[in-house]
Amino acid sequence: MGGYLGNLLGGGVTLIIYGVAGWTPAILFLAVITALPLITLALYREPARDAGRVQPTLGQAFRALGNVLKQPGAPTWALAVSPLSLCGITVLSSLISAALVDAGWNETEIGTLNGVIIGVAGIAGGLIGGVLIRRFGRSRTLAVTGSSMLVATVPFILIAFGGAPFAGTALAIGLVMFAYTALSTVMLTVSMDYARPATAGTDFTLIVSIAQLASFLASALSLVAAEHLGYTGVAWFSIVLTGAALLLGLRHLRVHAAFLATRA
After folding, report:
1. Which of 142, 162, 165 is nearest to 154 (CA)?
2. Range in 39-43, 135-139, 164-168, 213-217 with the lowest mean pLDDT
């Protein structure tokens, strides 16, 4: 929710302000909302360190970080399932702004779509994803949310890259992002399952960072590929990535169910 709220304000609203009032008001607004978290940081007080806890050396800390991928199924999850899932949506979303600019959309329309519509849909999807996990578990939630994203992506490709008006495109991308964020909630939950209690922060960061790095590369390559294959061709490839993540993820949760049950 917090991430998509930031996307809504910092991306969508800022771009809308730019379209209406220009750069100076937009950047001033961005500066203000970026500074707001400093209030929370200033008021935060870290808990006292456990006196009985032995502080690891730098070498021990790095070895512990490397060992996270030695857990059952962790390499497959961190190096394949999680990156494929994130790359699927990244490839698709990286094309949206460029395609809409080529279609003649203005800054306000693009800002409303990329910021406001995606932000609201992302917040709702994250909440629903959490509810589904609690009620139905990881495997069934992964199956439902992953399948929903695949189903929602097909009409989005046909509508958004077919020159549809704002309302149709906004509805289509909203459904895709709603489904993806619910799917992402499952992916991040399993990544947290692999985070060991003593080194939870670094373990989780390592797993997520691998997927983020892959998504950065996918985003850059997708725009290069779009120059040769067209927006629609690359967008269809995003479905392949998402489908692969779904199949591998379901198999992974089935094979390593016993181990993950001890970490949930």
Report:
1. 162
2. 164-168
Helices 200-255 & 82-102, crossing angle to 10 degrees? 100
Structure tokens at 214: 């892959």
As given in the structure block, the two tokens for residue 135 are 């009620």
Show the CA angle centred on residue 251, arms to residues 134 and 80, nearest 5°: 95
Q: Which two tokens stand for residue 227?
A: 């120059």
Q: How large is the angle between the packed helices 138-160 and 118-136, nearest 10 degrees? A: 150
- Residue 7 near residue 122, CB atoms below 8 Å: yes
**Looking at residue 52, what is its pLDDT?**
65
Binning pLDDT at 50, 70 and 90, where does residue 164 land? low
Cβ pair 77, 142 in contact under 8 A: no
The two three-digit tokens of residue 153, written as one number: 């992506």
CA–CA distance, 9 with 111 (Å, rounded to integer): 10
Residues 28 and 119 sit within 8 Å (Cβ to Cβ): no
Q: CA-CA distance, 83 to 64, in Å (whole number)?
A: 22
DSSP string computed for 106-119: -HHHHHIIIIIIHH
Rounded to whole angstroms, how far apart are CA atoms 1 and 181? 9
